[in-house]
Specification:
Radius of gyration: 21 Å
Number of helices: 3
Shape: rod-shaped
Order of helices and strands: HHH
Largest sheet: none
Distance between the termini: 32 Å
Structural class: mainly alpha
Helix content: over 70%
Number of domains: 1
Strand content: under 5%
Length: 89
């Protein structure tokens, strides 16, 4: 995977997390009474909403873990290169 692909994947993961947080904040601060907002939130199929949210959070977590692992590999590769360069000097 090239660095451009990794960067794009990282941006997508960040966008997904931002979209979820933005949606939650938007609902909570919507210009309606709290009672109306709660009724709207809980009037639908709560199980399906919870399932969608859990899936979205899981995808965001997986993306973050993938990015973290990629960063660890890059750090190790850089350390190895630096060691080789220092040994040659």
């Amino acid at each position: 995977m090239s660095s451009e692909e990794k960067s794009g994947s990282r941006k997508k993961g960040g966008f997904l997390v931002g979209a979820i947080v933005g949606a939650a904040v938007g609902v909570l601060f919507a210009p309606r009474a709290g009672k109306e907002t709660r009724e709207q939130l809980f009037s639908g199929d709560l199980g399906a909403q919870k399932e969608r949210l859990v899936k979205a959070l899981g995808a965001g977590k997986e993306s973050a873990e993938d990015q973290s692992e990629a960063l660890r590999r890059k750090i190790e590769e850089t350390r190895a290169r630096l060691r080789e360069q220092m040994d040659q000097e």
